[in-house]
Please model this.
Amino acid sequence: MSSTLGRAAATVGALVLVVGLAGCGKPRQRPSLELPLIVVRAPTAAKWVSLLRASGAASRIGTLDEAIRRGAAVVPAHASLPPDGERRLRALVTDGGRLVTADGDLLRALDFGFGSLVRFDRVTVEGLPGVVRWPSSYGVRPLVGSPPRRIVHPLARHGRSIVLASARLGRGRVLASALDPFQFGLTGHEVLPLLGRQAASLTAAPRGPRRYGAEIYLDPGSVSGTPEQLAGRLSDAVAVHVAGWNVGFLDPSFDYPYQRLIAALHARGVRVYAWLEPPFVDSRMWNDHPECREKTSQGRDAVDDWRSLIALENDRCFKIAWRVWRNLLARFDFDGVNVAELYFASPSLPYHPSALVQFGKNPATNPQEWLRFRRDLVVRLNRKIVERIRSLGKPLDVELTVIDDQLDPKLGRRVGSDIERLAQAARDGGATLQVEDPYTTWTRGPSRYAVLSRSIAALMPPQRSLLDINVVPRAYAYPTATMTGAELDLSIANASSRSGRVALFSAGTLLPGDLGSVAGAVAGAAVTGDTYVDAPWSVVVSAPEAGHGRFLLDGKPWPAAHGRAIVPAGRHTVSWLAGDDGRPGLLRLAGNLLAERATGKTLDVSYDALASAWSVVDRRPSSLMVDGRKVALSVAADPDGGFAVRLPAGRHDVRFTF
Model:
């Protein structure tokens, strides 16, 4: 699925950098790229840049002179403009430039007026249903367009009070905010949820780097669409975790066509994981084996939200559950397994006789020992399932999704989560630790993911951990609300800043407009300069315009295809040349690219990947060598263009021949 963010159809005011190449005789063609959008220096300039980068736009802090030369600018509130700054910015806009600003003095110079001070705590936002509630009531002087204004289009308002609007002035456009979105320590999303994307769109900001590092949960039984349609919607993911309980029904016609979905995702270079939710197994085991139903302290069958729990602490019940999971993993071509959320929601669980016998005491009179027993049991069961998966002998990647106990230790103890020991279990089993933030922290905003990322840094290697973002209704006042816009973009950017990976729950709750922004947000920690990109992991960069198909990395030719190139980790100078050298190139790689080199008929790639390194090349290969040995080649045509090839996990050197 193509992202709709970043570049507008017409790049008004965009400036193309031209760099001369040394040489003699006839001049060589000169490299070019679009320059990042400039945020003029101000106390909140860094927050604007973070918001824009998370929204998929290339931007950096710079001077007023740089901004005016580029034809587009963001001027934060309280920017230190020179005496003639307002006049020059007005001239920029009337001549066709684009401007985003929350600076009151500048807005007056652009013919905006302000109404009387009004206090309110919510707004309606174009593009979002219902009402967006603010963290507090703020005083706002609403925007008023003066007579020279031709068109004023409200984007956020409280009744008749306009808070955010786009407007025309002369031949240019302005995105005007009546309040500083970063005042009172805010990060922008709390008051104007779509601000980053709106600013990127109005200024026609160049598209920033992208990274295909999102792992998206999918319960195909709860969403509409054919397997092929679902694969198309999720093609920007690096992996899709597919619910593993939609199979094994008494009537086989009710079984979900897993292999169709897996094949459709593989054709787009996307990994597929079997998503398990122990102690839940599936409805058939629950119905066929009532003796294995987990019990509560009141002696009732244990149901936690939508999960009907099985007493996995009972050896016989575990064996039955494992047969179900083993059959699923043996039957379908999964790349990995996600053992997700194996915990107990409250101390009233697990009270199956098997658990009570193992504990050997009365939980009511030994509450602290009972809590320790439950933590031990959670660790033991996670280890046991990982060991069984490894015993299959298949090259399956394994992830353990666990509840964090650092941000809210009380909740961690309540559900039986000991993240340090679970991390050790993941390390011992060669698994990745996926950490889910407790629901009690969901009101803390995107910054919590930066805190959580630091807290698990000592537990797992960077590439062996990722954070799980629950995209569920909570932040806004309308019934169908879900995390969206800047809140989602900043959350993804913070969560993925260390590992370049993030998990999103789920495909059924992500709004359609948000799916296209995910790859840009995952690369939100990448720094974009005028001539360079600096990222801690490999990223995809895009050509500035159609017809620029040749790419220079650090001044040397580098493979590119379809107007995109994959850049290894680190700081690299980048530029594009017009034309196409006719050589092959990578379009996608589910791993970190280390090196790439193309000739007329070969493409050499060095990479490192923790799981199946699905790749997409721009043409059909005829043979494949891995570490100098020819291997069997299986190719699938990607409906979005190119051809998908599965490469092995690990660090490898491969050669495609065409």
Summary: The longest strand covers residues 132-140. Residues 1-30, 475-480 have pLDDT under 50 and may be disordered. Residues 529-657 form a domain with the Immunoglobulin-like fold (CATH 2.60.40). Residues 5 and 73 are 17 Å apart (CA to CA).
